[in-house]
Write a structure and sequence with these properties.
The structure is a homodimer of 193-residue chains. Chain A has 193 residues and is of the alpha+beta class. Chain A is built from four helices and 15 strands. Chain A has helices at residues 55-63, 76-84, 153-156, 183-192, and strands spanning 3-6, 15-16, 18-24, 27-33, 36-40, 45-51, 65-70, 98-99, 108-109, 114-125, 129-142, 146-147, 150-151, 159-162, 167-177. In chain A, the strands form four sheets. The first copy, chain A, has a seven-stranded antiparallel beta sheet with strand order 4-3-7-10-11-6-5. In chain A, a hairpin with a 2-residue loop joins strand 3 (18-24) and strand 4 (27-33). The interface between A and B is large, with 103 and 105 residues. Strand 1 of chain A pairs antiparallel with strand 11 of chain B, so a sheet runs across the interface.
């Protein structure tokens, strides 16, 4: 079947590109963040993977709060920039216009269509990274990004990162409906017992 | 600025669609899995969010192993099916041709271009879900999915899920290079001090 083993770092799953917002010594700081996921269903929680060397790591340990901001494809340059320079060396606080929800150490980027404020409920220490699990406190968007009251990915226009080829990608076409596309197969399997 | 607060469940980030492989009572079992991320850089680890009601949850607690399989867009129907029926009610072991690497309770789906075997190193208990962090033990692919020795997302042809609109999406066009697109801005910021 031609299967081969590849390096453990190589697998090229697309991750949604976000910008992590924190407060570092009282000022807003930002970092490109790709390694995140829902970590719990109810209450909704996000888990984020942050390298212990990053300024954002110290910032989150200090405040217990962070924001996840979803940039649009036309923010690709500035998003990439946030991952090229460290908050230890460069003050990135003026990079974006921000606003705040309930969490005063979770700066929300006004230009991002979706911004999520989280409060850390668990910190999992791993060899090179901490995995911060945060309960979602508030999500902000704008009416223009909704369709029938739900965020619409085609209006939000986020982008994806693949590694190790290090490319950003737009979201393509809708190919099927989830929790639906497999229904015909389910009926067939039932009939065949 | 027109910002509005939305329900904490609504944020529509695209997640890469995968199929979780486990062993349940000695047989292969599969479940659609979207909530996963890299959880540590070195050694490479994946973290997955699994609801405590799922058969896969009991399976992982039992064996401490799982696989993450990346289906292609032409597997959308069968992938969706794995999320529509529970391993508690239906035997899904015959759904795919599988092979095994080092981990004998991590069934790899032959048809999937990327298959990743993981050994649980930490289980984080959360209210409705467990977050299983697994060290990547082996990744399998095939030569035809590589470009210059690296997995090529356009050859792998994975797809994405957005919620709560519940749609599957293909990956679109490459829009920029990561760790590169922001370099001009970095130079500009340096000049402007």
């Amino acid at each position: 079947m031609g299967k081969i083993v590849i390096e453990k770092d190589l697998f090229c799953l697309p991750w949604t590109q976000t910008i992590l917002g924190t407060h570092l010594e009282g000022k807003a700081n930002f970092m490109a963040l790709d390694w995140l996921t829902r970590a719990n269903y109810k209450p909704p929680m996000l888990g984020i993977c942050v390298n212990k060397h990053n300024a954002s790591h110290a910032a989150i340990l200090g405040t217990g709060e962070f924001s996840v901001n979803v940039p649009t494809t036309d923010m690709v340059e500035v998003t990439d920039y946030t991952g090229l320079v460290s908050g230890k060396c460069v003050d990135k606080s003026g990079l974006f216009e921000v606003f705040y929800g309930e969490l005063k150490a979770a700066p929300m980027i006004t230009k991002c269509p979706i911004t999520i404020g989280c409060k850390v409920v668990k910190t999992v220490e791993l060899p090179t990274n901490s995995f911060f699990i945060g309960e979602i406190i508030t999500i902000f968007t704008e009416d223009r990004f909704l369709t029938e009251g739900k965020p619409d990915v085609k209006k939000i226009n986020p982008f994806l990162l693949t590694m190790p080829d290090n490319r950003f990608w737009s979201v393509g076409e809708s190919i099927a409906k989830a929790w639906n596309a497999g229904k015909a197969l389910r009926e067939q399997m039932k009939r065949e017992g």
